[in-house]
């Protein structure tokens, strides 16, 4: 299990753009499972949407990408590198994510070739799918 301090030793994102709170488990180069506690005081809820706070889908996608980055950047040979978006494919939004939700983020690396890879990503709340798709990354 990784806490926020340990997460920041692996990925470069920092507040307010660090989108994961803890990592439950990870296998370097293969997979990661992380969590985001969605709180009402998140910076984006002020404008998205007043009176009806919903976590933006792009930020859920970013949280998934950061989870995948834990898997990739925890490999010794990738220490100090960054994982950038190379593409987003087959992404579907199935459920709104609101304050009080605990977002479970799971990414399994399904392809790797040189500095490019693909992760199968799924975000759930209480076992219910919120977002599902594939994320392509490029290591730089």
Explain this structure.
By secondary structure, this protein is an alpha+beta fold. The chain has one domain (4-139): Hotdog Thioesterase (Thiol Ester Dehydrase, Chain A), CATH 3.10.129. The protein is built from 2 helices and 6 strands, in the order αββαββββ. It has helices spanning 4-10, 57-73; strands spanning 22-27, 31-37, 83-93, 102-113, 116-125, 128-139. It has a 6-stranded antiparallel sheet with strand order 1-2-4-5-6-3, with helices on one face. The longest helix has 17 residues, at 57-73. The chain is globular. The chain starts with a helix and ends with a strand. The model has no long low-confidence stretch (mean pLDDT 97).
Helix content: 10-25%
Number of strands: 6
Given helix and strand content, the structural type is: alpha+beta
* Global geometry: globular
What name goes with the CATH superfamily?
Hotdog Thioesterase
Question: Do you know the CATH topology?
Answer: Thiol Ester Dehydrase, Chain A
Q: What is the CATH class?
A: Alpha Beta
Largest sheet: 6 strands, antiparallel
Mean pLDDT equals 97
Distance between the termini: 26 Å
The parts where pLDDT drops under 50 for at least 5 residues are none
What portion of the residues fall into strands of 2 or more residues? Answer: 35-45%
